[in-house]
Design brief:
The protein is mainly β and 319 residues long. The chain has helices spanning 5-9, 66-69, 273-276, 300-307, and strands at residues 11-13, 33-35, 56-58, 83-85, 105-107, 128-130, 150-152, 172-174, 193-195, 215-217, 237-239, 259-261, 286-288, 313-314, 317-318. Strands 1-2-3-4-5-6-7-8-9-10-11-12-13-14-15 form a 15-stranded mixed β-sheet.
Length: 319
């Protein structure tokens, strides 16, 4: 199949070219996508402001600060932008994105942003928002994102899960590496993927109504008991490794569980394991139990193979 030359002109990929500016680069007016990832840009080329067909612009991993990005907020000709990536730059504030009414994906991860308040002017149509690896202290200015499906706020300084009530279409919530002490999904029931790894949780209560959950990541916390899981009938992946668990509980009715991560806990024995995982023992394909006392018992692997007849991986060993 022949490539249409016009199609090539619609996409400009300048990834990892180490450019300091775009002076020697042609920017055709019909461009729809520009990828400038991993360059050395400290300011934006004003010719971008004339690209009225532009839908996707990636400025990931450059040297742009707040002042350098500010012109974007006035470039009305590119107001039809659907995806804007400013990840891994030098931003301390969220730029005013109010002119971009059709924005679906907005990525300001890996910057130095301390507040989400600037998000109040971001498109109501937004479906994916990435603000991980910043210095954000509070979950706020999110209430208007009724269409949001993915929210990434990992590696910030958050202490409380809050202000999520109106995000009724949210399917993925990533909050790993924060300082959260308690789970509060604010009544949301459509979430399919939830990560609270590396926080300060001591309990997993608060998930009971999240019946759509398919993947749950709670590793590296201080959880002492498995509870509040029995209603999560769609759960396929459960990671509660590196906690303080001494037994396996509350998952006997889960019939879709395929991956179970229990390594680095305090589980003493494999006795009762078959009953504890009764609902999923036929379909479970991966289990991690290494660095528990029970992993030192004689014929540890053989006993797990009997409990889980279709197991494909035990710890790091592929069957």
């Amino acid at each position: 199949m022949e490539t249409n030359p016009t199609d090539e002109l619609r996409f400009l990929d300048l990834t990892s070219c180490q450019l300091h500016d775009l002076a020697d680069i042609d920017l055709p007016e019909i461009l729809e996508e520009i990828d400038l990832t991993a360059n050395r840009l400290t300011k934006l080329d004003e010719r971008i402001s004339l690209l009225s067909h532009l839908k996707k612009l990636s400025l990931r991993q450059n040297l742009l600060d707040d002042q350098a990005v500010e012109p974007l907020t006035h470039w009305n000709a590119i107001s039809g932008l659907e995806e804007l990536v400013l990840r891994d730059n030098k931003l301390t504030n969220t730029p005013d994105m109010s002119i971009f009414k059709s924005l679906l994906v907005f990525d300001v991860a890996f910057n130095e942003i301390t507040s989400l308040m600037g998000l109040s002017k971001v498109s109501l149509a937004l479906k994916e928002l990435y603000v991980s690896k910043n210095e954000v202290l509070k979950m706020e200015a999110l209430d208007h994102f009724h269409s949001l499906e993915i929210l990434e706020l990992g590696s910030n300084r958050l202490r409380i899960m809050e202000n999520l009530e109106t995000l009724t279409n949210l399917q993925e919530l990533w909050l790993g590496r924060n300082r959260i002490k308690a789970i509060n999904l604010c009544g949301l029931k459509c979430i399919k993927k939830l990560s609270l790894q590396s926080n300060r949780l001591t309990s997993m209560l608060g998930l009971q109504e999240c019946v759509a959950l398919e993947e749950l990541y709670l590793s590296h916390n201080g959880i002492q008991k498995m509870e509040g899981l029995s209603t999560l009938h769609n759960l396929q992946i459960l990671d509660v490794s590196s906690n303080k668990l001494s037994s396996v509980n509350d998952i006997e009715n889960l019939t879709k569980l395929e991956d179970l991560w229990l390594n680095d806990n305090q589980i003493e024995s494999l006795e009762g394991m078959e009953a504890a995982v009764a609902g999923s023992r036929e379909i479970l394909s991966t289990i991690y139990l290494e660095r528990n006392p029970c992993a030192k018992v004689p014929e540890y692997t053989a006993r797990l193979k009997v409990i889980f007849p279709n197991i494909q991986q035990i710890d790091s060993d592929i069957m």
